[in-house]
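Most newcomers find our protein records easier to grasp once they have seen one. To make this concrete, we reproduce a full record directly below:

…
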Amino acid sequence: MNASPDKNIRRLKSHQQLSSTARNSYHAASKNTIAARPVREQLSTQSKTTDSLPTRNRANSDVPMPFERARFQRKPLQHVSNPSNGHARKASLEVTLREGPAPGTKPSASLGVLRHSILTSGVQATKEGMSDYRIYLWLTLLNVAPFATDDYLACIHRGRSPAHDKIANDVFRTLATDTLFKRRVSDASLTRVLNATAWRIYDTQKAIPSETPVIQSSYIQGMNVLSAPMLYAARSEAQAYALLASLLTAHIPTYLTSTLSGVHAGLELIDKILATIQPKLSQFLMSNCLPAKIYAFAPVLTLCACTPPLPEVLKLWDFLFAFGVHLNILCIVAQIVLMKDDILESSSPGKLLRSFPNLRAEEVIRTTLVIVRDLPEDIYAEVVRHGRV
């Protein structure tokens, strides 16, 4: 059921208020290579009740639940006049996005409320992952300024982008077996968004001085999968386009270099992190000639969008967009850690890692919180930088 026009207008106003603060935070962060430290501290506080990494064969009752208290303290939907007291309410995400920051509350504090609410109660959605406000949450958290649909239409009216042939070869394969995605998103819609994004990236590249290229490819294989959750969650193609273009140009630009330098840096970090936190598992993988580049290329490039089911990907992206897409590297490590027992007992670990088990977002996030807490500061700083430097 679509939200009313009045609610959409309020959400856009709220998005504009929150985005201005988020953009200021982003520009400040670009001057500090460990700018994510405050966010890391917020994440670390959620993992204090977790003493060790959970493994796949543990019973759910044995796994510490950092957001268990909030789960049993849900309250009816109401405006939160004091976010510091009401941040655990499941409705606080929607209230903040619908109404904007409460009177007397700084937008920066409201962003903190959004982040905390994602950890404690998550986005309210149907079993198919549909939510009336998730797209506005993503736009806000990714620092995407309010945009004009005409800008998207202008890209469409330019016709086929220089990357159109590559796009056409990939579109029909995008989440081909996912009935939820195919039922909601058409190949034509996906083609338009990818071509518009390719034009946007192409124009950005032309505007960059030739001696310091940052983006060298207007389209790479994998962008089609990366765009799929955005089109699935968005209320319009223009929203998906704005999200995808912002993600690629502002958050992970090194993933688009001619050598995919950011992706390869992320793969090396997976090996490094495993050697640090799980030396036995790391040694086993290396002894079987299984560095991360063998099994984790697609999850790194697509921010785990290649791992079904799609509703779980949406939950994981709520977390990544709230605390930084660089955390995708740690989420992949978390998935490997959760497979630890099966990997160590397998006679063919390479075959086991060929496709990850179905994604369980909450379990992956819980494990990631522990990794964030225990990871050495210098390695965490590398994780923060790898997609942007």
Summary: The first helix runs from residue 5 to 29.
